């Protein structure tokens, strides 16, 4: 890993980390692509480097032969042990096929062969939201608000127009697009896209799906999900609150336990130096999304979009610098990268609770 001039006073290794999200998807050698293509038996794509993996499949960078478009392909093996994973990828494709919104990853196709299912989506090669924040020279409440607006607009479409829930929102599920022309990058809120729809569900008439074993990162999981109770749109809204908490303070909320999920408390936005410069309006929205008064009391996506902080003037929010978030994003990113390197050397995944930058789904 190359060294960079450190602009923030932290070590050059951490600065070099900022290139990680932008380079790990680089186009691999043509011979590697061809070999992977033959391995999978799908000749519509040239398969490249692995971006992530699970028990029964993996995600790879690929190039479509017909037009040269770079995409991400989730490859799920088909065998007698893969029934649940096959069902999940088919449901994921069904949900994505009904979504059409600028801040949601775009489905390209679903293709099936006797040996594998291939879920093909647009390639988002700008890292995740923590990578993006860590790479900024400065970061303000205006930037946090732009990210929140993009996320809320995506969920309004998903919840109100399509009738689905994501159920697994966390930092590494917010991926960043880059301008393929190499021109100036648009604002951070214009580049963020919601990915990771493998746990999404269509809502039944009751508005809730059955509870199941809690998955993902508990710091971003609603109490009803931790308690394995039925849940719906409010569970996504709690996760939005936890994401906004992280984007305003530089650290995620405290991980909930079973006992704290039974008796939840309001988010601790009133204490700690990281919250000292955050506006009361921003804290108010976090509180409305993570309220301990239960799912029904949480703001919907539509109501959150009408909140005073979301509608505040750009100039006022641009003057509110959030230096603690820059530092926190870099520390989280460095810790995560170290964990991924240990996992790679050990030949397996470690359960650190730190989100993986390479998680495309």
UniProtKB/TrEMBL annotation:
Gene3D superfamilies: Transferase(Phosphotransferase) domain 1
GO molecular function, one term: ATP binding
Domain Protein kinase: 45-310
Keywords annotated in UniProt: Kinase, Transferase
Organism this protein belongs to: Ectocarpus siliculosus (Brown alga)
Protein name as it appears in the record: Serine/threonine-protein kinase
Taxon lineage: Eukaryota, Sar, Stramenopiles, Ochrophyta, PX clade
């Amino acid at each position: 890993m190359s060294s960079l001039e450190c602009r923030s006073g932290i070590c050059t290794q951490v600065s070099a980390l900022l290139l990680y999200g932008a380079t790990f998807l680089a186009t691999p050698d043509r011979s590697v692509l061809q070999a992977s293509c033959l391995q999978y038996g799908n000749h519509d794509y040239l398969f490249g480097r692995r971006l992530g993996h699970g028990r029964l499949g993996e995600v790879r960078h690929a190039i479509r032969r017909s037009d040269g478009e770079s995409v991400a392909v989730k490859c799920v093996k088909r065998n007698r042990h893969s029934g649940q994973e096959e069902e999940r990828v088919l449901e994921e494709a069904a949900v994505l096929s009904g979504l059409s919104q600028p801040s949601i990853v775009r489905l390209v196709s679903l293709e099936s062969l006797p040996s594998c299912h291939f879920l093909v989506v647009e390639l988002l090669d700008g890292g995740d939201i923590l990578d993006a924040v860590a790479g900024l020279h400065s970061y303000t409440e205006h930037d946090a608000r732009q990210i929140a607006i993009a996320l809320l607009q995506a969920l309004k479409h998903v919840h109100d127009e399509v009738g689905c829930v994501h159920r697994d929102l966390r930092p590494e599920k917010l991926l960043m697009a880059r301008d393929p022309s190499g021109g100036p990058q648009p604002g951070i809120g214009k580049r963020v896209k919601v990915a990771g729809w493998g746990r999404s569900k269509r809502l039944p008439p009751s508005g809730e799906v059955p509870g199941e074993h809690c998955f993902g990162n508990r710091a971003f999981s609603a109490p009803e999900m931790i308690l394995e109770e039925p849940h719906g749109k409010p569970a996504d809204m709690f996760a939005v609150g936890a994401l906004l908490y992280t984007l305003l303070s530089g650290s995620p909320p405290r991980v909930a336990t079973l006992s704290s999920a039974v008796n939840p408390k309001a988010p601790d936005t009133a204490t700690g130096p990281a919250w000292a410069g955050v506006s009361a309006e921003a804290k108010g929205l976090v509180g409305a999304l993570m309220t301990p008064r239960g799912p029904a009391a949480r703001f919907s996506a539509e109501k959150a979009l009408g909140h005073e902080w979301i509608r505040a003037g750009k100039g006022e929010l641009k003057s509110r610098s959030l230096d603690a978030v820059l530092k926190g994003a870099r520390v989280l990113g460095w810790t995560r990268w170290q964990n991924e390197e240990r996992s790679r050397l050990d030949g397996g995944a470690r359960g650190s609770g730190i989100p993986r930058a390479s998680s495309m789904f």
